[in-house]
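note to self: dont lose this again. the chain is below, predicted strucutre after it. 378 aa total, dont forget to put it in the shared folder this time
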Amino acid sequence: MLHRLWLVFAQWVTVAVAVVFAVQTLRPEWLADSLGRGTVVFNAASPGSGGTRTDSYAEAVRRAQPSVVNIYTRKAARRSPLSEDPFFGQFFGTPGPQQNLGSGVIVSAQGYILTNNHVVEGADQVEVAFPDGRQTVARVVGADPETDLAVLKIDASDLPAITLGQTDDVHVGDVVLAIGNPFGVGQTVTMGIVSALGRHDLGINTFENFIQTDAAINPGNSGGALVDTRGNLVGVNSAIYSRTGSSIGIGFAIPVSTARQVMEQLIKDGVVTRGWLGVGMHEVTPEIAESFGLKSPQGVLISAIYQGGPADHAGLKPGDIVLQIGDKRINDEKSLLNMVAALKPDTAMTVLIRRESKDVPIKVTIGKRPPARARQGE
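---
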């Protein structure tokens, strides 16, 4: 009898040990809960154990970091005419060259580098420094102040070009990495998430469609890379919102889709060509909509017509409301600006306007958008 009891006991102990072993291996948190709040179960990796780490973005950095360069610009100091005077010259001394610092991204193995226009604007000399310490002189292929983008070219080949991502693959909440040279301390990587998409009306550029991120972007990061967790370029770091000049968690990057379009035109033609209507614009308020017989605020009110522009030639007038261009409805000033800019100059379009409570179609031949400093209207 005792022998049988001993065998039963031994069998139950064996089963219990097997169950505990299985739970410890497959569901250790169950044991932690059963042992009470004060017990912590550690899953310790043995020395040298492999596997994919989900807490590290080292592989993304390894792929993208060689493509991010530092940019140094020099601008000769302007001497006052009085500095040449024998008497007044002693008060001026010898001015040295002004220096600026930013970042850039190698986008082609043949030596093309993408950066911000404000990094290289007005520079007499541009130098590029690679992560390995090499330096070389670059020339500005072209710049687009209205998106704050510029393309440089260096005499080199077989460069580590970054992989361009897809803007459609970027979502709010995605982890992103900002790579650049903040404050000149050297190449630095910061991490954050995509805080928002499509930010505009910030007054930074004419054409705005920013990616907002809380990855730290500081002076010197301008023109650097914003990459996803695979190391693909999703944006060009451009600006920050700050009261101190340093990052407070609100940074803005130009989406890679915009950067690609501008870059391709700059490389091909040296300039970006956009459509132009030649009008001043104003928001359609509920009161304006009611006075024009519109059921709700829609379209854009023309506040001014610039002499000799496409709208002037077509017969548009101040007080007209633009409702539609071609088959596309106009919702606000931004949509009109972007829609016209995307059209090729000399394109004939039908513009539907509201004039004196009636819808009137008018044929307009889109013009070429003048440079920012010479342009009047949109």
